[in-house]
Amino acid sequence: MNVLVVGAGSMGVWFARTLREQADAEIAFADTDSHVAGRAAHAVGGRAVPTDTDERFDVVCLAVPMPVARVAIEEYGPLATEAVVDVTGSMTEPLAAMAETVPDRQRASLHPLFAPENAPGNVAVVTPAGGEAVDAVLNALAAAGNEPFETTSAEHDDAMKSVQAAAHAAVLAYAMASEDVPERFHTPVSAGLESLVDQVVGGEAHVYGDIQEMFDGADAVAAAARELTDADHEEFAALYDQLS
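and the corresponding C-alpha cells:
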C-alpha cells in the first residue's frame, strides 16, 4: 500500500509512522513547506513529493488544519486510486467534500482523540464508504494499540463542543483568571487544574484556535461561569446539588 499524507505536522507524521510500522506502507509527504515535508519523510523512512504532484497513490490522507480541509480534499482526493481519509479533527465538512470530490472512492474520517505524543488512544471513525484499503488503515491503527470506534459525523462534532471547545475554554479561563501562588498553597483541585493548563498550553496555538472556531462550546462555559457568579448562596447550593 502506498500512501500520500498531505500535511507533515505532528499528526501527519504519527499517521504515516503508524502505517509504515504496522502495514509496511510506502509513505510520501506533501506539505506547503517543502523542508517540513522532507524532515517528516526522513523521520518515517518515506519521501517528499512536490505539492503539485500528479502521482497516484492507493490511499490519500489529509492531515491539514480544519479550515483548509475542503480545499485539500478537492485538490488531492483525486490522486487516490482506492481510498481517501482525513485526520483533521472535524468530520461533517471533510466527509461532504470527499463525497462531492471522490464519490467512487472508499472514504473515511478519523479523529485520534489525543496528541500524537500521547498515543495510543481512542480513534473516532466514520466510514460512509468502506473497503479493503480503509480496513487496512484501521487495522494498522488497531495493531499499534489504538482503539478505533465507529460513530457518526453529527455525534462526533457535537461531542467536540464539550470535550474540546468547552474543556479547553474552561482550562484556559482558569489560567487567565488565577494568580501565581506558592506551590505549598495548592489544593488537589487547583494542582490538577495547573497540570491541565500545562498540558493545554504545551500544544500549538493555531490548532486550539481552529477548534474554538469550528466548534461552539466556549460560550456555554462563559454562561455557566456567569450563572455561578450571579447565584446567591441558596442558588449556588442548588446548582451544586444538580451537578452532584
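(Above: one complete record from the training split.) The chain has two domains: 2-151, 155-243.
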